[in-house]
């Protein structure tokens, strides 16, 4: 049985945007929603409640944030099963721990903080890197966050590690009645270095097409109602995916595990799309 969809909130505008997205996603998935607020959030994001540091007041403030989030969620989806939890821990650590029992974990791109120039917050990045379940970082342009563009984009990496991300992307496309666009980036040195000897790019294209076919074979058979477009595209993977995100309701990428078992190791592509995507990004762990 799939765990609940969990959303972490801190009362900031990005977290409320994530909450709205999470409510809609829980409705699409027909699953319960758990609204989590870590009560030490303000300490780690550079904001303190105006009433001081009294532990009871901080607890009251934390419960107020969680209750407000639940009320907002109920107004958006009265039929949804919603619960709240206030956790007296560092927010990133608390959400990573909560991910053990979650189906999907949702966070905003940033929280309360004093570093306005940061592209990604101090909670969303470590959560995306270490959670035990798929993590959606809600970010990007309003039209992409609100959905309705009719496209879910899957960034296809190494075929032997792509099945979890592919399954997540197909399900997301199915619940949205959207087209699934699977992108496999490839690069040809001859096209990047003007003095490099001429190289035929056909072999690169064929390899990318074969990798797409391998990754899509099983989910296409399972999700027969999902329209699929498999696209081998020349370029750096991060650039190809960020460009595609402008036309997407959701961008899905995989994340590899460290062999040490400590958690997820995000590569350069994962970092790039989390910082620059024009739409929400789902980071799906694989073994």
Description of the molecule:
By secondary structure, the protein is of the alpha/beta class. The chain is built from eleven helices and eleven strands. Strands 1, 2, 3, 4, 5, 6, 7, 8, 9, 10 and 11 form an eleven-stranded mixed β-sheet that branches. Strand 6, helix 7 and strand 7 form a beta-alpha-beta unit. Helix 1 crosses helix 3 and helix 7 crosses helix 9. The longest helix is centred in the N-terminal third of the chain and has 22 residues. The protein starts with a strand and ends with a strand.
Question: What's the rounded overall pLDDT mean?
Answer: 86
Question: How would the global form be characterised?
Answer: elongated
**Number of continuous helical runs:** 11
Structural class: alpha/beta
Total strands: 11
Order of helices and strands: EHEHHEHEHEHEHEHHEHEEHE
Relative helix content? 40-55%
Biggest pleated-sheet summary:
11 strands, mixed
Low-confidence stretches: 41-47, 114-119
Q: Strand-residue fraction?
A: 15-25%
Taking Cα atoms only, what radius of gyration do you get, to the nearest Å?
20 Å
- Distance between termini? 20 Å
Secondary structure layout plus pairing:
Elements: E1 5-8, H1 13-29, E2 33-38, H2 41-45, H3 55-76, E3 82-87, H4 91-98, E4 104-108, H5 124-130, E5 135-138, H6 142-146, E6 151-155, H7 163-176, E7 179-186, H8 189-192, H9 202-222, E8 228-234, H10 237-245, E9 250-257, E10 264-265, H11 268-276, E11 281-286
Parallel strand pairs: 1-2, 1-4, 2-3, 4-5, 6-7, 6-9, 7-8, 9-11
Antiparallel strand pairs: 5-11, 9-10
């Amino acid at each position: 049985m799939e765990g609940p969809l969990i959303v972490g909130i801190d009362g900031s505008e990005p977290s409320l945007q994530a909450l709205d997205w999470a409510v809609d996603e829980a409705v699409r998935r027909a699953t319960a929603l758990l609204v989590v607020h870590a009560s030490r959030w303000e300490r780690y994001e550079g904001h303190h409640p105006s009433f001081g540091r009294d532990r009871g007041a901080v607890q009251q403030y934390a419960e107020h944030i969680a209750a407000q989030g639940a009320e907002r969620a109920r107004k958006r989806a009265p039929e949804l099963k919603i619960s709240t939890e206030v956790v007296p821990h560092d927010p990133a650590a608390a959400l990573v721990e909560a991910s053990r029992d979650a189906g999907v974990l949702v966070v905003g791109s940033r929280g309360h903080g004093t570093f306005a120039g940061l592209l990604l917050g101090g909670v969303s990045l470590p959560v995306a890197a270490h959670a035990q379940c798929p993590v959606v970082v809600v970010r990007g342009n309003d039209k992409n966050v609100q959905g309705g563009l009719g496209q879910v984009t899957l960034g296809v990496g190494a075929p032997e590690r792509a099945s979890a991300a592919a399954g997540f992307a197909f399900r997301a496309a199915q619940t949205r009645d959207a087209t699934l666009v699977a992108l496999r980036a490839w690069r040809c040195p001859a096209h990047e270095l003007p003095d490099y000897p001429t190289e035929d790019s056909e072999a690169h294209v064929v390899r990318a097409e074969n990798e797409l076919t391998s990754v899509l074979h099983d989910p296409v058979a399972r999700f027969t109602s999902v329209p699929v477009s498999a696209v081998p595209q020349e370029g750096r993977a991060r650039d190809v995916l960020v460009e595609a995100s402008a036309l997407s309701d959701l961008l899905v990428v995989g994340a590899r595990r460290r062999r040490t078992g400590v958690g997820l190791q995000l590569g350069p592509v994962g970092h790039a799309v989390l910082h620059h995507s024009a739409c929400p990004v789902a980071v799906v762990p694989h073994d």
